[in-house]
Structure formats: structure tokens, C-alpha cells
Design goal:
alpha+beta; two-stranded parallel ribbon; 18% strand; globular
């Protein structure tokens, strides 16, 4: 091999070595960028997890603070619960650690209990409560919702398999793409009604602020009842009457409420006093915790008498 060929071969080898070197350098650069990107992503994820967890505990502290307000009311307030008390309404944001918490309380007894549509004298039979059915139909009318939707709600919770006039039993739900059966029992959470025929998300958003499933005896606290709830009691309670009833709150007992309402309505509704109350023990508490750009909201239903949660959801 002459000198020229040797030089040419050396140039080829050096070019190949240079190419390999460049590829190795490029590979290292890619690896370094990947490590840096992953490290940044891990830091962001760790930061998000940290803030998520912190926001949850701030929200939980908000729930605890609202519960303390309810406990203080129970110990120091009178024998009635009404909307001008400290617990009612929204608490202003207050600092907790690195975040802020805010919350509000509503009385579940100020709402209509869907489970009160039925009387349950035994475990094998039930009976529609005519007074409560008529009240819920009026409430739906006031909210511009089809009152016939009361029938499928009854069919959902009643024990029998016979459908109401505008109702729906198993045969309606079994033909759906994802079939299921009616519950044939009391509702445990309000969200369950989204499974019921005709209850769309929009309708749910309209009616849910006025409904509950947590009051065992189904009584409504007339001192915390919403304007619409008061109107739904009887067709003769018009807008001005409902406003007058609210202006005269709080009522010391159901008799004084009945007197303000008028003896005609109370007299014609014999069990009237059995459906109402002036005290409450079950409350909804919503608290939001915010840490930097992260927020967590807790929705809870608290039984003040039994000191236990009936519902607890984190969003």
C-alpha cells in the first residue's frame, strides 16, 4: 500500500471516528435534556401534589371551623334555628397556613325531603303521602319543571312494581344501552335522582338546591325554608304571603307559624303540624381551601345531634 492510499484510509477512519463522536455527544445532549425535562416535570408534579394536599387540609379546616359554629349555636342559642343566626350564610375567606379557607352552611331541614313522598309502615309495603306529593308537584311548577316528574321519583323509591301514571319502573330502565333497575328503596344521596327517568343535568341543577334526602321524619323547618318551599306548602300561599311569612321569622313553634299562615290552610290540612318544625340538626357544609393556584372543595352533610357525617365528598 503506497503512502497516498494510507493517507486516504486514515482520513476515512478519522471521519468515521468524528461521526461516532458527534453521535455520542448528541446522545448525551438528548439524555441531559430528557433528564432536565423529567426533573422539571417531577418538581411540578411534586408541587401540584403538595398544593393539592395542602388545599385539602385547608378545606378540611374550613369544615371544622363551620362545625364549631354549629356546635356553639347548639350550646348557646335558643330552641329554634333560623336564618339570622351566625351559622347561616357564607363565612368570609380566612387565612390558614399558606392558604385561605371559605365556607357556608345551609340547613337540610329547610328543604323538601324526597324520601318523605312515601310512608313506610312496614318493610314490605309503602303508601304515597298525598300531602307531600302535592307539595313537591307545586314546587316543581314554581321552578318551571314538569310536575309529572314526581311520579318516576315515587316509582324509583317505592317497593311495588306498579308504575304511577307518568312514572317508570324496571321495564323503562332495562331497555337502556346500559340497563339498570329501580332502587325500590329510600334515596341515600341526592345525586341518585340523575338515574331517574326525565331528570336531566339541567333539571337537577334547578331543583337540587331545594331538595334533601337526609331528614328521617321529613319535617321542614319553617324558619329556614326557602321562599319557594314556603310557597309550595299550599296553592293559596302566593308570592306576597310567602314574603310576609319570611319577614315574620323566626317562629317559636309550628303553632305560631300556622297562626301567621292562616287558620283556613291549617284547618283543612289536618296533619299540617306533623310536617313542619322550628329546629334543625342536619346541615350541609361546603368549604373551599385555596393554596397558591390550587383549590379543593369539600361538600359535607353533618348531623349535629349524632356528631357524624352523613355525606362527604371532595372535589
Amino acid at each position: 500500500m503506497n503512502r497516498l492510499e494510507v493517507a486516504r484510509l486514515l482520513r476515512k477512519e478519522s471521519g468515521f471516528v468524528l461521526l461516532i463522536t458527534l453521535l455520542i455527544v448528541l446522545l448525551f445532549v438528548v439524555i441531559i435534556f430528557e433528564i432536565d425535562f423529567q426533573a422539571r416535570a417531577d418538581r411540578r408534579a411534586a408541587g401540584n401534589f403538595r398544593d393539592d394536599l395542602a388545599a385539602y387540609y385547608v378545606a378540611l379546616s374550613g369544615i371544622t371551623a363551620e362545625k364549631a359554629i354549629l356546635e356553639d349555636d347548639q350550646k348557646n342559642a335558643g330552641s329554634t334555628d333560623y336564618l339570622n343566626e351566625l351559622w347561616a350564610g357564607t363565612s368570609p375567606p380566612f387565612p390558614i397556613g399558606d392558604g385561605t379557607a371559605s365556607g357556608h352552611i345551609t340547613d337540610e331541614r329547610g328543604k323538601f325531603n324526597l324520601n318523605s313522598l312515601l310512608d313506610h309502615p312496614t318493610l314490605t309495603t309503602d303508601k304515597i303521602n298525598a300531602f307531600k306529593k302535592a307539595q313537591l308537584e307545586r314546587l316543581f311548577e314554581l321552578l318551571l319543571v314538569d310536575p309529572h316528574l314526581v311520579d318516576p321519583i315515587i316509582d324509583w323509591i317505592d317497593i311495588g312494581s306498579d308504575s304511577e301514571q307518568y312514572g317508570a319502573e324496571d321495564e323503562t330502565y332495562q331497555v337502556l344501552k346500559f340497563p339498570y333497575s329501580t332502587k325500590n328503596g329510600p334515596l341515600d344521596t341526592l345525586e341518585e335522582i340523575l338515574y331517574i327517568k326525565g331528570i336531566t343535568q339541567d333539571i337537577y341543577q334547578t331543583i337540587s338546591p331545594y331538595l334533601t334526602v337526609y331528614i328521617a321524619d321529613g319535617k321542614i323547618n319553617v324558619n329556614t325554608a326557602d321562599f319557594m318551599i314556603l310557597q309550595s306548602i299550599d296553592r293559596r300561599i302566593d308570592e306576597s304571603t310567602a314574603k310576609s311569612l319570611m319577614e315574620n321569622m323566626p317562629y317559636s313553634n309550628v303553632t305560631s307559624f300556622c297562626d301567621a299562615l292562616g287558620s283556613a290552610i291549617c284547618r283543612q290540612n289536618t296533619p299540617f303540624k306533623n310536617f313542619f318544625d322550628v329546629q334543625s340538626s342536619i346541615f350541609s357544609i361546603v368549604a373551599t381551601g385555596t393554596v397558591r393556584n390550587t383549590s379543593k372543595t369539600i361538600h359535607a352533610v353533618w348531623d349535629r345531634a349524632k356528631k357524624q357525617y352523613l355525606y362527604f365528598k371532595v372535589e
